[in-house]
Every structure is written in structure tokens, then in C-alpha cells.
């Protein structure tokens, strides 16, 4: 399996997931924009995986697009899955209590799901090894299944990174992966016809306090070389002054990377001996029997 380890602290990521914070506003906006790309999918998926659903802000969008599909939330840990299930509970007297709702499972079990659509909104930048994450997505999809994801790109919070470097504050956060590298990882994982693109979204706030409050909803500093321990009130006051300097509003930009691809039928390679799992062999036979 290809690897792509980053300079990244997974402990900080785990702490954010344990915090139980709601999906940030920006995640919901990116989900809305990405949902417009679902029109390129001609097939109607019967089983949809919403990867790391509690921060995806996508459940209602996916339900709107595919009301008849089985929607499964995938969470990174058993604890996150249990918290997601608890959040979906309705009072016994509510009509929605008796309706069949989305199911949830922990990520290690997701490989057996065989979904026709795997949707991963704003989660890939939380992976210490993006290539391994993409490979797990490939395993979770059925043949001809469709992957659609979004994540932060390298230009994200560049203003904050520049400010930290100028004033010696240490790294503002872990580096994000370039979309061309992500495309290569998709090919290595076995995806067919990957398409990558990106856009920049700039958010502005009236005060630096508002800016920092919103940035906290987007995660944590996962760079292992970040400042150890707590900062002082004097340092925070200086940071707020630096953020507010030279402009009427605080502006911070985010690079949003989008990717989508199909999982093609497995191919048996030529050689002295080739071993192909029975399920993959059946998929190859079905693919060869489709009308051209």
C-alpha cells in the first residue's frame, strides 16, 4: 500500500474528535458546493457512505439527492460512532422515532460496505497518511462505485502562516497536501479517471476575536512542532493586534480541493501465476459482459 506520511500529530486530531464539536459552518458550505457536482453521476446509488459524518455536515444534502438510498455514517472510532447514534435519537412520541434512519459504523468495518457512493466532505486533511485513507475508500466501494471528496489545500490560512512566521510564533498548523499529489494517490489506490480541481474561499470578520473563534471550530494545530504548553494572555493580546493590523476587517483564505473518481473493475496482471480473489473475479466477469 502506498504511504504518504505527513509532518502531523494524530494525537491533536484525536483530541478534536473527542471534543464532540459540531460540524463547522465552512464544512456545510463546501458540502453544498460539492453536492452540485453529483449531477455528473448518472447512476442512482443504493448505498451511500458518509465518511466521518459527524463533521461532514452532509447528511441532509445526501438524503435530499438520494432519498431511497441506504445512508451509512462512518466514524473514525467506536466512541465517535456511539456519539453519532446518540445524537440521532428522537423522543418515542416523535414520528421520526419510528422511521428508519441512517445507520452508523466505525471505520475499521467500512471495508465490507461495498457502497456505490462514498462521500468524504472535509475529512482527508485530518489523515496522517492520506494515501492509506484513499486506499481504504477504494476498499469500501463496490466496482463502478463513485468517490467524491473535498479537503483543505496548501494555501489554506496562508495569512495566518505568514503572520506566525514573521513574529516567531512557531508553525500555525500542519501543511496540507497538494491536489496533484492527491490525484497520484488516487491512481495508486486503483481509482479510474480521477478528476481534481480547487477553489479559494475567503472569509472575513469584523474583529480578530471573531476570526479566532471561527478558526477553532475548524480544528486544531496538528503540527508536532507547535508551541508546547499554554500561551500567555500577553501573547494572545499581541496576536489579536497583529491580526487586526492594516485592514478594516480580518480576512483569511482557504484553498478547497475537490476530487472524484470511479472504482473500476479489477484487472488480473499477466505473469507466471496470478491470484485474484473470487469476489474480484466475479466483478471482472460482470464487467466483461456489459454491453459496450
Beta-strand fraction estimate:
15-25%
Strand adjacency order, main sheet: 3-2-1-4-5-7-6
State the distance separating the first and last CA atoms: 32 Å
Q: Tally of extended strands?
A: 7
CATH fold category name of the domain at 10-154 and 174-200 and 256-267:
Rossmann fold
- SSE topology string: HHEHEHHEEHEHHEHHEH
CATH class of the domain at 10-154 and 174-200 and 256-267: Alpha Beta
- Described by the principal axes of the CA atoms, the overall outline is globular
InterPro entries: Malonyl-ACP_OMT, SAM-dependent_MTases_sf
Protein name: Biotin synthase
Keywords: Methyltransferase, Transferase
What this model shows, in words?
With 292 residues, the protein is of the alpha/beta class. It has a domain at 10-154 and 174-200 and 256-267: Vaccinia Virus protein VP39 (Rossmann fold, 3-Layer(aba) Sandwich), CATH 3.40.50.150. It contains eleven helices and seven strands. It has helices at 10-18, 25-35, 59-65, 78-88, 95-98, 130-140, 158-167, 179-189, 208-217, 233-244, 278-289, and strands spanning 47-51, 70-75, 103-106, 115-121, 141-152, 191-205, 250-263. It has a seven-stranded mixed β-sheet with strand order 3-2-1-4-5-7-6, with helices on both faces. Helix 3 links the parallel strand 1 and strand 2. Residues 92-99 have low confidence and may be disordered. This is Biotin synthase. It comes from Caldimonas mangrovi. Keywords: Methyltransferase, Transferase.
